[in-house]
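Protein in question kept underneath.
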Amino acid sequence: MLFFININGYSQLRNSPKKLKSKEEFIHSATKTDFPKNIDDFNLIEAYSFDKKDENIGVTYEKENTKINIYIYPDKIGNEGRLRNEFLSVYNIAFNKDVDFKNLKIINHKGEKYTCNGIRGISKNSNNENSLLTILECGTWMYKIRITSSELNNQNLIDLESKIINKIDPSRLTGLKLFNLKGAISFSSTAIKDSTMLVSTMAYSFKKCEWLIKNLEEKEKYSGFQDLYIDMHKEALKQFVLYEHKHKYKSSDETKKYLKNLNKIIDSPFLNEFLMEEYKMILIIPENVNLNFEEYHKWKTENNFNFELKHNLSEVRYEI
C-alpha cells in the first residue's frame, strides 16, 4: 500500500465546444476510438471537443426523433466512489431533478480483456422525452451515453445502448493505460482526531482492498476501484469496530458514540438496508439477499436510530 496524495492535472476546458472534422467517421486521437459513420440506422452528425487537448470529446448520432450522444473523457485517478459520484452528478444536471432510484441499474460489460462496470438511469427529460443516461468506468477514461427519444420506450433505449456498447467497446479504453493496483490511501484529519478512529479507519480501508483482491476477477480490477459490492462494505465495517476494545487506544466521546451506533446497525438484521441507503441505492447485492425497507424504517423509529457513516475518513484510489 502507498500512502500519499497526488495532485493530478487535467487538460484545460474550452470556453465553448469546438466542432471537429467528422465526414465519414470520427477517430478520437487520444484513444484511437473509431466512431463509424453509422450505428444501426443512426447517422453520425457531428463531433466536438470540450478541452484544448481534444481528449474530452462528444459525438452525436441522429435518426428521426431519436438522438444519441456518446462522450469519452479522461479521469486518471480511480477514486473510491468515482463512478457513483460521477453518475449522480451528471444525472442531476441532465434531468434537473432528484434521482429516480427505482429506474437505476448497475450494468456489467465484459470485454475481451477487461470488464467495465457502469450505472444506467432512465427518466423523462424536461421536454417529456424518454431519456437514458449510462456512464461506464474504464480505467483512466470515462464513457458516457445519453439517448433521448420521443418514440422509443425504455426497453428500446436499453437495446440501443447495448448496440452502441457492442459497436464502440468501452472495455478497450481500460487497457490503454493500466492502473497500478497497489491502492493509494490517504486519511482525513477527521480520522486522525484520536487513536481509535485512526486505527479503525486504517483497518477498514485495508479490508476493502483485501476483499477486492480476493473476490474480483483480474479483468475487472483495472477499470477502477470497484466499490459497488455491498459485501465489501459489510466486511470493512465489521473490521472497523474490532479495534475499540482490542487495545487501549485513546477514544474521544464522539468516536465512542460513532462506534456504538455502528455496532448497533451491524448487530441488527438491517445492515444491508442501511448500506443501500447510505450509498444511494447503488450497490451490487447477492441474489439471495432480500431487502425489507419497511421493516428497517420501523426498526429505526422504534430504536430512535439516526446515524450516517463518515464517508470522508479515508480515500482509497488507484493511480497510473
Observations:
- Residues 70 and 145 are 5 Å apart (CA to CA).
- The chain has two domains: 13-175, 180-319.
- Residues 13-175 form a domain with the Protein Transport Mog1p; Chain A fold (CATH 3.40.1000).
- The first helix runs from residue 82 to 95.
